[in-house]
Every structure is written in structure tokens, then in C-alpha cells.
Amino acid sequence: MNQQLKVQIVTLLFAFVLTGCFQSVDNETMAQTTEQKQATPKGFAVVELFTSEGCSSCPPADANLTRLVEIAHKNKLPIYALSFHVDYWNYLGWKDPFSQRQFTERQRAYARALRSSRVYTPQMIVNGEKGFVGSNRRQAQEAILAAFKTAPSASLQLVLKDATEGLQISWKTKGMKAGDQINLALVEKTAERKVSAGENEGRNLTHVNVVRLFKAIKSPSASGSTMMQTTEKVDWKKYRVVGYIQAPQTLQIKAATEAELKPN
């Protein structure tokens, strides 16, 4: 099977999974589905969701991201999800415990790159290029399928190691251009909070891949390492690191991967 056909098969499979089209299949279709699952997309999709526990429109987008993560893991698809909690809703009575000003500034940088006059929640951005309302499943599907068709222009590998002073993250890259940066996001796989004030008062909210620490390494060497430190002792099994190479001006994402700490 040639690579172009593999890409077409996998993107079609993903479209079927997202739209719930697998209702009943005959033996021939089942055989084709088995072959489809063995193929891999040509590209990848980094899905960044800008959200807030203080925003009543955000829970459906959080659920959409959760759905994408489940689909990706079940079908082994290269979708790398990140939940960035912004801080500009905090004044409405509920301070989102996951929010950081750094994430708000990141969203504003996207607004400038995408020539948008505003920032809003919930917003999804795929591969730094396509932005839309984060609860819109169809637009998420279309953006991810489009991303699958473009081969990465670089490569990135990560290895994690538990160290005395924190989490050591080592990387190896190929194909980076001058000025590119490596983004490293320490994400909590799942998180839940009961909201006692604000627009979501009384609701139990759940999230996936919540960004807890974020580090941008500007003009890195082709290989190297860095440390991520938390203010308290954590169970690293509940976390993973999502890494991606990004152009600083256009914010186009060129490669991505994720890694978890291997058990001793």
C-alpha cells in the first residue's frame, strides 16, 4: 500500500470515528477497517484549547477535547491535545486554579499571528494555523484531517527522567530552522474540580491534558535537556509531556510528540 493511500484511509477512518458512522459493518468492511488501523497519517495535529472554569461556554469544548484524546489513544492517531486555562475570566467570582497569565499571553500571540482582533474562550487552534470555537466538533474534525495530510518538516524525540531536582526532559531534533523553538508542556492527564462560584457555580468540571508547566526553549541545539520543577511532589504517572517545534513569527507547528516517564 503506497503512502498516499495510507493517508487517505486513515483520514477516512478518523472521519468515520468522529461522526459515529461505525454502526454496523460486514466482514469485508471489517477487514478493511483492520488494514486502516495499521496505517499511519502523513502528518500530525497539535490541538491547543484555550479555556476557563469561569466560562459557562467552555465545558462543551472541554468535552470535545476529551473526546479527541480518547479517539487518538484508541486508534493510535498523532493528535497532541493541550488544555491551556487563561486567567481573564477570574474576576467573575471564580479563580480558575489551572489558569496562568502566561497562557493568556500565548493566546494573544496567536491572535496577532492569525490577524484576529480578539481573544475568546473556548478557542481551539490546530497546528498554530487554524482557530475556531472549541466546542465545534465538525471544525475540529476538518482541521485535524487537513493537518494529517501535511508531512512534518522537522522531527522531535523526547525522553523523560525522574531526577532529584525535578523532571529531566531530553530532546533530539532534525530539520529545525534558525529561530525555531521547542515548546515543552507538562500536562496533567485528567483533572476535576467542583466550581463554587462564577458562571459554572455548582458544577463538577473535568479536564484532560491540563497544562501545568510550559517552557519555550528558543533556538535550541539539535539535542539537549532541561529540567521542569514543580512546587510540590507529584506522581509522575499522572502526567505526560507534550513537545512541539514552532516557528516564532508565524507560530506554525512543524513537528510534535509526547512522552511519559517510563517505570523503573
UniProtKB/TrEMBL annotation:
Pfam families: DUF1223. PROSITE patterns: PROKAR_LIPOPROTEIN. This is DUF1223 domain-containing protein.
